[in-house]
Amino acid sequence: MAAKPERYGRPKSKANPRPSAVPIALPEAPPSRQPSAGGGGGVVAAVSVDVLGPRNPGVDIGSLSEAALSGLAAFLRGLAISPAALAGAAVGGFGLSLIPTNAPLGRTVKLPGPGNVSVFQELDEPGLTFRYTTADGVQHEWMAAPAAGGVYLGPDGKVIARWTKIAGGLGLVVSAAALLNDDRPKLCPATVSDNHGPLGLAYEAFMKRLFNPGNPTPMGMAYGFHGPAGNLVKIDDCQQQTGILAEYKGPGYAYHLAKKDPVWRGQLAGMLAQAERQTEAAPGKTLIWFFSEWSVYREMTKQFAAKHMNIKVMYFPMLRERRRR
Amino acid sequence: MTAPYYSSQRNSYLTTAKWGADGLDPPAIAARIVDMLNRTSDLVPAGQRWFILDQKRERWASVTESLRDLIEANEIPGDFGEPNPGWGYSVVLLTLDSDQGPPTSTSLDISITAGSNSLNYFSFEIGDGRNLPDYSRCTYQIHRAMIGAIAEVWPCPWIFAYNSRSPRVHPPTDLAVNGPLKPPFGGAWIVYLSAPLAKGLAPPTELVVEPTAGGGLFLSTARTLLDQSNADEMRRSRLLEKIALERIGCGTGGGFPFTPIRVGPA
């Protein structure tokens, strides 16, 4: 079993949910670069992947021997329909993809197949960031650190990527099927596009990475709930492991609060109305409002308490603001 | 009396009302606001007058300006920036010395959301929200008069006035029997029940009871501000809280319901 990631992610250490390995018999030697239909078909038959539906985890690349994985990578390479395609960033099929190391680092590589999966490898960090959309329409981001054996684990502990040798260097085999078939219980609703303005955007990005470590809600996305009359109510974030909801209020309020000016009164009216809508649309859910400004945090704590609103309030400044205090 | 802003001390008296879809458009909302302000004109502190928040231009506008246009401009946008007629209009009214503000500890402060297809509410308090109110102005009489005006002007089935205090000053006897005050009706002070909600109710004789001509009821713990440190007043407040819970019920999230959970006795 692969070790836990060192920096990111939350693999399950107990009861590895990885499905039992699919019996395969890959050729010891990699097939030719442009395999014959027979050769490719033989591998497909051996892999025993019929249909990669939403509940089909596909090939368990974590269970393959190095030789088998290398053979599989060679097969994937052979799926390139032309030399031009082979020169591209990734080739693949059957829920698997191969990213050769001659593909440039420091940029996003879009993988073929379902789930709109893309992989980003930092120039100076060993981790990989996966962005993908599950069958329920929810967009995800997952940061995976390299674990022992050159593997990367997905949010539910399955191996989603693994380095292997290919002709001329290394390649990264990615199992989009394993990534898309997340076995964890779904505690959050689907994400929806959020088109708010630039105010508070940096704070939201900062907090999202803390609220779902390694698996932040993508920027520009929020969670949609339906109010009593069917109106869509936005809540900034939802913790995948607990279902706790979060609303982020970044800088921009304290100045007006100090002046007690009409802008603040409008902001206050807006926040109270938003709080009403959110508590009505997500009854019984724990909802936390995070504030980056101390005075606003204090004021809203008083406001929510006085108005009997079932919302927890927390002060959490961005690091730069923290140093200033 | 003014407390330091960052003090955690709070001793507020708030009046709130909620209701469901009301079908009100900006002209109808403006007409009701004018009606309400006329009914409560004697409550305005000397030297102050009513202003409405012009949220688009971020200024205080006199209520003698075109209310209808100001309300129309204050339509609540959708959460995703889309046109959203469903969430109604946000109206903030304050009594101020001038259009430069700022609000003071004697200002009358009203927030209204009306015209929504689901969540409408009215909130009234005295003070600027940041400091303790001026208790020479924050009285039972002013809140009771405002509640009477709200009941006559807005389509709300219930109105609730309460005391929100921090730190808590519960008498030990009350705390031992009832536990700490809880939302939504903890700290109950004055309750208005419309006729359907008051039907068949025989209120305890300890409460101040004022029937309305239409069959509704005003119920109060006393004709003074509620004092949470007073065991007898808290006993009456608990009776009122129980009636409110029984007749109005809790919202889905444990807060005030926008529409009554029950109509008539439980």
Report on the structure:
The complex is a heterodimer of chains A (325) and B (266). The two termini of chain A are 46 Å apart. Chain A has helices spanning 37-47, 66-78, 83-86, 176-180, 201-211, 254-259, 262-281, 294-306, 319-324, and strands at 91-93, 96-100, 108-110, 118-121, 128-133, 139-144, 146-147, 151-153, 159-166, 169-175, 191-193, 221-226, 232-235, 237-238, 245-249, 287-291, 312-315. In chain A, the strands form 4 sheets. Chain A has a 6-stranded antiparallel β-sheet. Chain A has a 4-stranded antiparallel β-sheet with strand order 3-4-5-6, with no helix packed on it. A 4-stranded mixed β-sheet of chain A has the order 14-15-16-17, with helices on both faces. Chain A has 2 domains: 37-180, no CATH class; 191-324, 3-Layer(aba) Sandwich (Trna Endonuclease, Chain: A, domain 1), CATH 3.40.1350. Chain A is an alpha+beta fold and 325 residues long. Chain A contains 9 helices and 17 strands. Chain B folds into 2 domains: 10-156, TBP-like (2-Layer Sandwich), CATH 3.30.2030; 157-266, no CATH class. Chain B is built from 6 helices and 10 strands; from the N terminus they run E-H-E-E-H-E-E-E-H-E-H-E-H-E-E-H. Chain B has helices at residues 26-39, 67-73, 140-153, 172-178, 195-198, 231-247, and strands at 10-19, 49-54, 59-62, 87-96, 108-116, 120-126, 158-166, 188-193, 208-211, 217-220. In chain B, helix 4 (172-178) runs parallel beside helix 6 (231-247). Residues 1-7 and 261-266 of chain B have low confidence and may be disordered. Classes of the chains: A alpha+beta (325), B alpha+beta (266).
